[in-house]
Amino acid sequence: MGNEKERVAVIGAGSWGTALALVLADNGHPIQLWTRNERQKDEINDRHTNEKYLPGITLPDKIIAINSLEEALNGIETVVLAVPTKAIRETLREIIKFQLQPLTIVHVSKGIEPDSLLRISEMIDEEMPKRILKDIVVLSGPSHAEEVSLRHPTTVAVSSKNMEAAEKIQDLFMNQHFRVYTNPDLIGVEIGGALKNIIALAAGISDGLGFGDNAKAALITRGLAEISRLGTKMGANPLTFSGLAGIGDLIVTCTSVHSRNWRAGNMLGKGQKLEDVLMSMGMVVEGVRTTKAAYQLAQKYNCKMPITEILYQILFNDVNAKIAGERLMARLKTNEMEDLVDILSEQMEQL
Predict the structure, then answer these.
(1) What is the pLDDT of residue 29?
(2) Higher-scoring residue by pLDDT: 286, 160
(3) Of 26, 99, 271, 341, which has the most beta carbons under 10 Å away?
(4) Taking residues 139-159, what's their average pLDDT?
């Protein structure tokens, strides 16, 4: 009994939830993987596959798919929350109905809620009663589900207000294929993970327009400056954006065909309408919703975010992508060093 591994519930059987369930199962943890879809449940349990989300991958026997949220939560102390940002509140409200004992919630989605402008950890804190919320941990970093499921080397960061909780989750996930670092900057890890999707959409549009590598390199570099500028104003440590949850996640999301945000942007750049793109993707494109939230945050914090602002115009005001790109290039001249000075000044004010 003493060597028995902790049973973990993974809520959400999309590509990322399933890939993380696989990592945990490889580490010997029995997994209760919750899905609403009965056919998906039967496929996972009978054939040990999840072809829609991870084609060609055989899932370990330790992953058991469950339709009933009450059953999935039975005897659970750690929940991996792997649902889209827009489904977070609804899912938490369902969890509350069945959960009696304290939970550590590991959220692995990347987004910000428009209008409320809350990060996911803040949404969890707002929804969950204190009697059943033990700790909140965020897991983020450059990590395509497709590569994780193939057990290709992947490195991520975990963060929490309680670093003991972060270290526990580090131990839970870490193995020879999946390396986990801790980072005490919860705000920075969440902001980096959310905002990189905006820049990935812009990079996809740039590629769709045929603008080439020079333009994409500029977008990634100037995008990182935007993320750092806003993140610092929100209380993040600028150093986080030089790490896995910042530049690491930004590079992988802006340059890979695995990235659904890049793919969506690429289709937009080739002239497709947003509604058609989202319908054809068949999966949530977090960057679209996050662009709206970041646009609102830029106004709230009086923060210069030209890439975000242009992308907002493309997505929500139907501005032509090529014309928008030309507008971005035609902005008033500025000094690159001023951005770094601004970010450092913000950090000094917080010390």
Answers:
(1) 98
(2) 160
(3) 99
(4) 97
Determine how β-strand 78-81 pairs with β-strand 8-11.
parallel
Q: What is the CATH number of the domain that holds 75?
A: 3.40.50.720
Q: Which residues are annotated as a binding site for substrate?
A: 110, 260-261
Catalytic residues: 196
Buried b or exposed e, range 150-188, using 16+ CB within 10 angstroms:
ebeebebbbbbeebebbebbbebbbeeebbbbebebbbb
- Is 78 among the domain residues? yes
Residue 348 confidence (pLDDT): 57
Asked if pLDDT for residue 339 goes beyond 90, the answer is: no
- Contact present, 227 and 192 (Cβ < 8 Å): yes
Q: Would residue 345 count as lying in a domain? A: yes
Binding site, annotated residues for sn-glycerol 3-phosphate: 110, 141, 143, 196, 249, 259-261
Boundary of a domain, candidates 117, 151, 184? 184
Does residue 218 form part of some domain?
yes
Look-up: residue for tokens 């069945």? 98
Look up the domain containing 48 and give its range: 8-184
| Last residue within a domain, chosen from 156, 184, 212 | 184
Question: φ and ψ at 149, to 5 degrees?
Answer: -70, -25
Is 0.90 surpassed by the pTM of this model? yes
Nearest to 199 by CA among 287, 124, 277: 287
Q: Is residue 2 assigned to a domain?
A: no
* Helix H or strand E segment including 137: strand 133-140
Tell me the pLDDT tens digit for each residue of 49-97: 999 999 999 999 999 999 999 999 999 999 999 999 999 999 999 999 9
DSSP class per residue in 240-292: GGGSIIIIIHHHHHHH-TT-HHHHHHHHHHTT--HHHHHHHH-S--HHHHHHH
Tally the domains of the chain. Answer: 2
